[in-house]
Amino acid sequence: MKVARVSALVISLALCAAGCDSGEEEPSALLPADYAATYTEVRDCRTSGDHDLHHVRILADPAALAPYRDRDQPFPVGSLVVKEEFDFGDLDCTGPIVQWTVMQKLEDGSAPDQLDWTWQKIDTKRRVVTQNDTRCTGCHLVCGASPEGYEGTCAVP
Hints:
Blueprint: H1 2-19, E1 40-47, E2 55-60, H2 62-70, E3 80-86, E4 97-105, E5 117-122, E6 128-131, H3 134-141
Antiparallel strand pairs: 1-2, 2-3, 3-4, 4-5, 5-6
């Protein structure tokens, strides 16, 4: 009888853990579903050792396009830069996207530990896997100090 009660308790706790609300709302993906219709490629397909050896292609939304390309004006608040990530064997980035990394510009001084950007890794079901992962900011922090870097972006377009 005790074993049955313990088993019932364990099952109840497992069900609650799987279905109970943690009180924290999952962040929404910053990337619009139709981004490909209006975003412009700013870096072509290339290997990225910093993104799990995926091949990446970088796109900018209309607001981020000129700042990314010309590097003579700041990124406007709310502008988005997107890395489409492809399997490491997809040398020309024509296969399925395996995930996205998105950075959205925030107000100056609002998140200095994140370089004033919000960072998201988004899976193929458009769920946010990570938000403001220190791995992103840690890598991009060195970009501003390099000759190729510009406001947290790491390479010349």
